[in-house]
Prior knowledge:
Layout: H1 3-15, H2 18-41, H3 45-64, H4 72-95, H5 99-118
Amino acid sequence: MSFALSQYRTNQANTASPARVIVQFYDGALKFIRLADKALAARDFALKGQHLSRAHEIVSELRANLDPQHAPELCAELDRLYVYVLDQIVAANISADRAPLDHAIRVLETLRSAWAQLAGEPAALRPAAEK
């Protein structure tokens, strides 16, 4: 990655709204789950594990940053969904089955859509690499 692109991305992250940052977390988790799915299809189990580990880290970070003091019911529901997604990631990693990844993707895409609307961007917007 070029220095200019790196600087641009750093600036984007530093000036993004909190909702936009959460959307970026979802984008990252979805990216790594999709890459893991491709690695599974290619039977590259080491690469699958690396990508699922990254996705797990991102979803774990989202979960760790829930603040139930502001919206306890919402945080409880998000926590439940994040635990489900984490369980699906682990299941896919252990079983080398792609089906749990589909479940995780559906949940994360739904959440991403909601946060994208809060961030003021079109709900269907996806990073160009994901289309």
